[in-house]
Specification:
The complex is a heterodimer of chains A (452) and B (235). Chain A has 452 residues and is of the alpha/beta class. Chain A is 35% helix and 13% strand. The longest helix of chain A has 25 residues, at 374-398. The chains are: A alpha/beta (452), B alpha/beta (235). The A-B interface holds A 26-28, 31, 140-142, 145-148, 150-151, 171, 173-174, 185-188, 191-196, 200-202, 207, 210-211, 213-214, 217-221, 262 and B 17-18, 21, 44-45, 48-49, 51, 63-65, 68-71, 83-84, 87-88, 90, 103, 106-107, 109, 122, 125-126, 128-129, 144-145, 147-148, 164, 166-167, 220-224, 226, 228, 231, 234-235.
């Protein structure tokens, strides 16, 4: 019975078949949370550090200091943003996550001397109280925006787009638009919220310069102003943002997270973070503003290796969002029955959009929220931030650098041709040299031929 | 005890932008009643982020973001206004004697913005409260994604009027080129008309004889509906 052989198709994979059949049922595209699940993207894992040996001296891990501090807006604003380690908690809205999660992240960030970020939806008082350093996002939606919160911010981030879904606005499904969320956003209770993708009061880079001036006046020239752009046309966008007057530019790679997005967009828009950081750094170098404008990179950063490699490629700071939620307990093997009810399992959950988060983070349901103790969660997030800092220091010290920010592309080698081409980092085994067998000047035969 | 000044004069021709705004903010903080801004020369960002009560008189045209991100501020522009006058106004009142450019009263949260002439595209975009009154016409995408508040337009409206609005009311006296997605025209009650008429007359604008009332039809912003036409159009 030769036809009884079960042979899976790569063309018509189980996932593809499921996707088609779900669309046939739904009559629309799929919406989900988290991030792209593509496995074929070039990533920071394709790079390795080339630590010190005879040609360079490593630092003693226990004795010699390795500086991690970064200052944004130094010499430009009255209150520059000082980060004790080159990590920032990325913007996640009150609405996408709840006040307990905001509080936990705020406590952890404060203990580590770094910032949190409001995300869309306004500045929640719990978050402001918990966060010593808080970045206030100014988005096309302008939810919750007011001059008082602007003046209470430690930095302002003008969001052009998001890495998970560049070119579109936000989405928050009705089950998460609770009374408090609706009030903060001036929306009808329980409405499926879609926010605009363009700012209401400026259109292009020239206008953006005027907008930045406006925010500087409204904040009394006190705090730095960032521009955040989803990674797409990075090279040009970074130049335009820098020329518009930003103190820092945030580039969010396609691995960036979201609470709700069309799935097809997660997988098919934007460029990977490892490519984005190189383009961004190149653009700033080209216009001579690399030292003047800080570069913040986000999108799938999970550990100290990702962070240190991003910095070596030109970033000053990394933005971490999804991994922070994972540290809080996202996708942890707790309340497994609830994961099952959502049709998923711990470690594969992406149901942030449903508002039924089993671990009480991406939900506004008061009962589910009780599952996240902000104090305990803050301890976990703090530990996680500290571990990344230590990991970054390991790489810097081993490369002979007394400052994490001194890591540079020469500290890296690429494991794959793809990533070597993308980043310009030489592939392992080649360096910048030609192999000895390719050096024709050493060949007697060649010399003789040339002489003749 | 030094008495509070009734009025402060600022000449924009000789004053840097930062100083202009600092002088306005300081005057408001000190309880000065009025600041007269002379020679505004259509400069951008004149009167930004003021959160203490004060009355601003602009003796000419203003550029982008005049009286923006303000609270409890009243203002009169004796000329035309650039983009986004009254952006994010919380409380207060702004009257523009001439025309205003695009994004007038964008994301306004409260108070009243009156433009006696016409305005450009995206008037009252993302409106979150308050009232926008336009004596003339409005452009494309006026009231896009409006969330709350009221707009009264005495002239004509461009395409995509009120597109994707969540709530609030738009009143238009003239022609509407095209209604936006998720909107509908509903009956205007006599008492509503009388209220609008009185409001317009309080600003010296003669009320047109009739208005069309536009509201959200409740069709959008419900992503579980299997209505391909809506999805195709808006998402």
């Amino acid at each position: 019975m030769e036809n009884n052989i079960i042979r899976k198709s790569k063309v018509w994979s189980a996932e593809k078949i499921e996707e088609i059949q779900e669309k046939a049922e739904l009559g629309r595209y799929r919406i989900r949370g988290q991030a792209t699940k593509r496995l074929d993207l070039p990533s920071f894992d394709d790079l390795v550090f080339t630590p010190a040996g005879l040609s360079r001296v490593a630092l003693e891990g226990y004795r010699e200091k390795c500086d991690t501090r970064v200052v944004i807006g130094e010499g430009k604003v009255k209150r520059p943003l000082v980060l004790e380690t080159p990590i920032m908690v990325a913007g996640m809205s009150f609405g996408a996550i709840n006040a307990n999660a905001k509080k936990a992240l705020g406590i952890a960030a404060t203990r580590c001397g770094i910032s949190t970020c409001t995300g869309d939806g306004g500045m929640h008082p719990v978050e402001r109280e918990a966060s010593e350093k808080l970045v206030y996002q100014l988005l096309p939606s302008r939810y919750g925006l007011n001059p008082y919160d602007l003046k209470r911010a430690d930095a302002v981030e003008i969001v052009v787009s998001q890495g998970a879904k560049p070119g579109t606005g936000g989405t928050l499904l009705g089950q998460k638009v609770s009374e408090e969320v609706a009030n903060m956003r001036d929306l009808p209770l329980g409405v499926d919220q879609r926010s605009p993708c363009r700012h209401p009061d400026w259109m292009g880079p020239d206008d953006l310069g005027v907008k930045i001036d406006q925010i500087r006046i409204a904040t009394n020239y006190e705090v730095p102003i960032f521009i955040k752009v989803g990674a797409g046309r990075v090279y040009d966008d970074v130049k335009l943002a820098a020329k518009a007057g930003a103190d820092a530019i945030v580039i969010d790679g396609m691995e960036g997270g979201t609470a709700a997005s069309p799935e097809i967009q997660l997988d098919h828009t934007g460029i990977p973070t490892v490519a984005a950081v190189v383009e961004a750094a190149e653009a700033l170098h080209e216009i001579g503003m690399k030292d003047e404008v800080k570069l913040i990179i986000g999108g799938g950063i999970a550990n100290g290796a990702d962070a240190a490699k991003a910095i070596a490629l030109g970033a000053d700071v990394v933005y971490i969002g999804t991994a922070m939620l994972v540290a809080l307990n996202c996708n942890k093997s707790l309340y497994v029955e609830d994961y099952k009810e959502l049709g998923t399992i711990p470690s594969a959950c992406h149901h942030c959009h449903t508002g039924k988060c089993p671990v009480g983070i991406a939900t506004q349901d008061p009962e589910l929220m009780k599952r996240l103790d902000p104090e305990e969660a803050a301890d976990r997030a703090e530990n996680y931030i500290n571990s990344i800092t230590m990991e970054m220091q390991i790489f810097a010290r081993s490369c002979g650098k007394s400052k994490v920010g001194d890591l540079d592309p020469t500290d890296l080698r690429s494991l794959t041709m793809n990533t070597s081409m993308i980043t310009g980092v030489p592939i392992v085994g080649m360096g910048s040299r030609k192999p000895y067998w390719a050096r024709y000047e050493h060949s007697t035969e060649t010399k003789e031929l040339v002489t003749k | 005890m030094e008495s509070v000044k009734e009025a402060v004069f600022i000449d924009c021709e000789v004053t840097p932008l930062q100083e202009i705004n600092e002088q306005i903010a300081e005057a408001a903080k000190q309880g000065v009643k009025e600041v007269i801004i002379e020679n505004p020369q259509a400069r951008h960002n004149l009167g930004v982020g003021i959160t203490n009560p004060i009355n601003l008189i602009y003796k000419g045209d203003v550029g982008y973001y005049a009286v923006s991100l303000c609270d409890y501020v009243t203002a009169k522009v004796e000329g035309n206004a650039g983009w986004a006058i009254g952006e994010n106004l919380m409380h207060g009142e702004i009257v523009v004697e001439g025309n205003a450019a695009s994004s007038t009263a964008a994301s306004m949260r409260g108070g009243t913005v009156v433009v006696k002439g016409s305005v450009g595209a995206r008037a009252g975009i993302g409106l979150k409260g308050g009232t926008l009154i336009v004596g003339g016409n409005v452009g494309y995408m006026t009231g896009f994604m409006m969330q709350k508040g009221k707009m009264i337009i005495c002239g004509n409206a461009g395409k995509a009027l009120g597109d994707s609005m969540y709530a609030g009311e738009i009143y238009v006296a003239g022609e509407i080129s095209e209604l936006g997605n998720g909107t509908e025209i509903v009956e205007l009650l006599d008492e509503e008309y009388m209220e609008i008429k009185a409001l317009l007359e309080s600003y010296g604008i003669k009320a047109p004889p009739a208005f069309k009332k536009i509201i959200c039809n409740g069709m959008l912003h419900n992503f579980n509906k299997k209505e391909f036409g809506i999805w195709k159009t808006i998402l």
